[in-house]
Specification:
alpha+beta; two-stranded antiparallel sheet; 2 strands; flat
């Protein structure tokens, strides 16, 4: 879980809950570059992920090709 993703519930003046208040003491700049690099894919990994997604979702891909050819 990202450290900047802390969300708290706070009661507003009208008695409703505001669940979008973030802890302002933590931001995404607190994440090390090496941690970010671990989540990013290189070109080969992107290609493999695309091929896997298209294989798993081949019906969706086929329908999209048909629809794009008709419009």
């Amino acid at each position: 879980m990202l450290s900047g993703a802390n969300v708290e519930n706070e009661v507003t003046e009208d008695g409703e809950y505001d669940s979008h208040k973030e802890d302002e003491s933590e931001t995404l700049s607190d994440i090390d570059d090496s941690d970010v690099d671990a989540y990013l894919h290189n070109e080969e990994e992107k290609h493999m992920k695309k091929m896997l997604w298209e294989r798993v979702n081949r019906v969706y891909v086929a329908v999209r090709k048909i629809l794009s050819a008709t419009f």
